[in-house]
Amino acid sequence: MPLPRPQPMALPVSDLTLDMGPKLDMERYVPAFLNSIANKLSSGASRLYFKHFGIGVVEWRIIVHLVAEPWCTAARICQLIGMDKAAVSRSYALMEDRGLIQFRPAEPRGREAALTVAGRDLHDRILVMALERERRLLADLSPREVDTLINLLGRLQARIPHVNAYDPTPEEIGLPAGAGGPAKAS
User: Its domain of life (predicted)?
Assistant: First the structure.
């Protein structure tokens, strides 16, 4: 007969605290701020584009890049938009089924995509909506502020490889020397 599982002990309310030390100021923590803006813009665009055209924001991003760089591999699209290959592959399949893209073989074992005439027509129709959304987003900024914003965002984007290269030592994150990350399952 199996032993009964121990039940977790509930902590008395007096042992709980709402102030448990340092915390992020979510109104000033730039990565969270940028992420929130990007997520809200993406979900709004996705809803709008799906409602009117039956595609989401991932397909739109791919279309935009295929206009700028026709005959592009999925790996290159992933590099350009920062998405994983599985999401791009799913979008490629949907877009191919809808007749929006076509493929040709690419070296060494891949394939490259380009927009069809229907894909380019879809791009041109969505572009009107995308530019209006951008206009509404930036409406409270002067042309000079828009230029400054674009400059600052470009500089932040250029720092991403440096940020993503950061890997603190165990001591820097309060672990004993020689301690690694979570144990890996074998």
Answer: Bacteria
Segments in 21-84 forming alpha helices (H): 30-53, 57-68, 74-81
Q: Where are the domains of the chain?
A: 45-142
Q: What is the pTM of this model?
A: 0.77
How far is it, in rounded angstroms, from Cα 78 to Cα 64?
13
Block residue for tokens 């979510």: 26
What's the residue count for the chain? 186
Q: How far apart are CA 52 and CA 65, in angstroms?
A: 21
Q: Tens digit of pLDDT per residue, the chain (186 long)?
A: 667 777 766 666 666 666 677 888 888 999 999 999 999 999 999 999 999 999 999 999 999 999 999 999 999 999 988 888 899 999 999 999 999 999 999 887 789 999 999 999 999 999 999 999 999 999 999 999 999 999 999 999 999 999 999 999 988 888 887 776 665 554
Tokens at 37, concatenated: 């803006």
Rounded Cα distance, 93 and 58, in Å: 12
Whether domain 45-142 has CATH 1.10.10.10 = yes
